[in-house]
Amino acid sequence: MKTTIARTLAPAALAAAALIAPVPAVAATPVPQPIVYEYTAPCPGSEDNILAFTAVGKFGEIALPGGRKIYTAPGLRVTVTGPTGESRTYIATGAVATQNLEGGNVLFTATGPNVITVPEANGHPAGVFYTAGTVNWVLDADGNEVGDMFTGKGKVTDLCMLLAPVS
Predict the structure, then answer these.
(1) DSSP class of residue 128?
(2) Rounded to an integer, what distance in angstroms lies between the CA atom of residue 95 and that of residue 103?
(3) Minimal CA–CA distance to 55: which of 121, 164, 104, 128?
(4) Fewest CB within a 10 Å sphere: which of 37, 64, 126, 158?
(5) HSE-CB of 94 using CA atoms within 13 angstroms
């Protein structure tokens, strides 16, 4: 869970940007609050090719100077279930930091383990990914990707290919 954001867990602003898996509306607080949240995300192939998620753990938002934010998810576990019923559980305790850039763009940096949803945009289909390490992406003021879907030295696993492959 845009994590984290979006791309994996993130608050409504990141979910609206559609790059961090959505989280329930929780008041922004530096002290992580318990959450239990269920949601779905599309995978390429057909409108029936959907992953279901259950996220349990904690989520918090830390406001920093300059409009920057850090989203944390201590103890978060995300169970992802494919259309066939096969499921996997991931520890998604990473953090996502945001930084405002010139022109209204926002740089997102995910560190640690995160589950990240990506919308259909910039010529690639929607998808869901498990990331470990550091990955980055940039969104413009309208929530559109700027540049590549992910950059950085982190490892990215395509959960749609794993749990909902197109035949």
Answers:
(1) E
(2) 25
(3) 128
(4) 64
(5) 32
Joined together, the tokens standing for residue 47 give 């409108």
Mind giving me the DSSP string for 57-73? EEEEEEE-GGG-EEEE-
Give the pair of three-digit tokens for residue 20: 């961090």
CA triple 97-109-2, angle to 5 deg = 80
Residue 8 identity (one-letter amino acid): T
What's the predicted TM-score (pTM) here? 0.78
pLDDT per position as a tens digit, 32-68? 899 999 999 999 888 888 999 999 999 999 999 988 9
Cα separation, 56 vs 44, whole angstroms: 26
Which amino acid type is present at position 94?
G
Residue 24: which residues within 8 A CB-CB, separation 6 or more? 35, 37
98/63 Cα distance (integer angstroms): 10
Could you say which DSSP state residue 104 is in? G
Say which residues have a Cβ less than 8 Å from residue 11's Cβ, sequence separation at least 6.
23, 25, 26, 28, 61, 71
